[in-house]
Amino acid sequence: MILSFYSIPASAFYYCIEQSPPVEIHSAECPGLVIPEHKSRNFIGELLRCSEAHNEYTRQQAPYDEEAWQDLKNIDRAKAAEFLRALPEPAWSETINYPVNLHWCWQNCELVTSERHCGAIVYCDDNTCNHIPLTCFADITYCEEHNCGKGQLDFNVKYIRKDARWWHPGHKNYVDILANGYDLLPGEKEIITVSNLKTSWWTGSRQSEKLSPTLSIEDPRNEYSSGMAINDKHANSLDCRLNGYDNVSFSVYTYKRITSASPNAFSLPTAFDNTELEPLIWQSTTGNNGQRIAKGYPLILRAQDYSAATMSEVSEDLSTKLKNIIVRVQLFEPSIFGEKLKSTIYIDEAKAIQQTLNAISSDQKIRRSTLWEFKLKNGGHPDKNIYRSFIPALFYYPGKVFLTDEELSYDDNLAPHTEYTLKLTVYQKNFPFYLQSCDADPDAWDCKWYTLWGLFNVNRYERNYFSKRSLDVRFRTSPNVDNRTWLSSFWHTMGWVQAVVPIGTAVIILKYLGYWF
After folding, report:
1. Which of 202, 163, 426 is nearest to 303 (CA)?
2. Going by DSSP bridges, is the β-strand pair 266-267/280-286 parallel, antiparallel, or unpaired?
3. Which of 26, 96, 200, 506 lies 20 to 30 Å from 207, alpha-carbon distance?
4. What are the E-state strand segments in 287-418?
5. Residues 281, 160: contact at Cβ < 8 Å?
6. pLDDT > 90: what percent of the chain?
7. Apex 477 CA angle, 472 and 482, nearest 5
């Protein structure tokens, strides 16, 4: 049985036969802008919307005379606290210039075939209904946007130190180096972003008729709250307007220290007089022509550390566990998809790091900086030798039953005349302010057997407890050195096979099920 009926919207009961004549319209919101005549028929209206703009500021540990503070701390903790609280509070001022856009809409009377404007004939049988749209004259709305000018938002940000009445050396959770509450430790950074609009990925809107100045902190080291005040407030404050000017102030308050990823205080090495040092020490090797090449491959990576002594002292104040730095060095090689991880080694502070004292300034305002030397080739284990790699997992796990890791790896040397990158990241093990692996914190609830030892907690994943910022050192290999062997080429080929096998298996299954043609 087939039924048919009309579905007609209310707007289809009239026809837009007459249109207003074209006239030249001068925008009231954006002086100087003339709306074209063909877009002025049945003019609906206009309004201003401001686009999003922002300013970024990177906050680091405030510089101070560490030697003088340490001497005070050893004598009188209260005076040491006063020393740090006498430092100026973190504060800065900036200007955000943002675009101001004019939005206007008009209507044209047009002949259209549209169910929404004209309705439809609907044919239904026992199973389905088919809609056939009708044709009619209807008012079709168009909207357009045009840049009108700019606006200006001036702002200032100030961190407010904790009240000394309840944050002092007698407080049970007090940490001497955090005398102000908002203090950062060596290597820590916070990126503070101030925006004229509050935007979010789920709304997708980056324009608004009202300004909503917003402050956000990326990778915060403390739990913060912020307040905003409008300076010289008036009736049109924070309205989107042409050549608009607003001035706001942000105050940032600190509640408590939170756990976060370890910082990275390493930098490229410098000498006593601050001249740059070569970050790589090369090992000579035999070249393709049989002669000895001085720069065969990097053997030692050198980096400057400004935090080791201070962080060790802070750790002793906070925990009975001995703090230990684990340094991760990753070797990246070029590929058609960009940088590709080739190998990774882990260097334990207590075992494989060589230290040499290297003051960074002649007047010793910052003391005990250290030049670290990380050996990239230290034995036959792939975790200690950046020029050895594990065989593909497809072969590694069956072989693991009978063989050692050294036997399940192979020499994976560098290609000639190729640019590689060494990336150094840090994990502060046994430091309570920083995220820890289950190896360092086995008694934690999310490291027990019933949570599969942190398997479902992303904070326990290596990428989260190692520092997010890496120290990068790029180098190019000699065109006359190639120590690669047929074995490394074979295992690279097996690696590609391992990647292709799941894809091929999925294709076969889909074809068998009839989903692949």
Report:
1. 426
2. unpaired
3. 26
4. 292-305, 324-335, 338-348, 353-357, 370-375, 388-390, 409-411
5. no
6. 54
7. 135
Q: What phi and psi, each to the nearest 5 degrees, are found at residue 292?
A: -80, 130
Residue type (1 letter), 114? S
> Of 329, 277, 319, 280, whose CA–CA distance to 301 is shortest?
280
Closest CA to 345 of 288, 271, 425: 425
In order of 59, 468, 516, the CA distances from 509 in angstroms are 54, 40, 9
Closest residue by Cα to residue 287 from 433, 110, 478: 478
Residues 45 and 50: their CA atoms lie apart, in Å, by 17
Backbone phi, then psi, for 215, in 5-degree steps? -115, 130
136: tokens are 């009619």
Q: Is the pLDDT of residue 88 over 50?
A: yes
Predicted local confidence at residue 173, as pLDDT: 86
User: What are φ and ψ of residue 382, in 5° steps?
Assistant: -60, -25
Is residue 3 within 8 A of residue 124, CB to CB? The reply is yes
- For 131, residues 6+ apart whose C-beta sits below 8 A from its C-beta are 7, 115, 120, 121, 122
Other Cβ atoms closer than 10 A to 407: 12
Burial class (CB in 10 A: 0-12, 13-18, 19+), 40: middle
Using CA atoms, how far residue 152 sits from 24, 102, 265, 431, in Å, is 31, 17, 37, 44
Q: Dihedral sign, CA of 163, 164, 168, 172?
A: negative
Which pLDDT score is estimated for 321? 80
- Cα distance between residue 57 and residue 94, in whole Å: 9
The count of C-alpha atoms lying within 13 angstroms of the C-alpha of 56, restricted to the half-sphere facing its C-beta, is: 5
Q: Are 282 and 304 in contact (CB under 8 A)?
A: no
Token look-up 């802070």 returns: 314
Burial of 46 (C-beta count, 10 Å sphere; 0-12/13-18/19+): buried
pLDDT tier for residue 379 given thresholds of 50, 70 and 90: confident
Whether pLDDT at 288 is above 60: yes
Token digits of residue 121:
């004939």
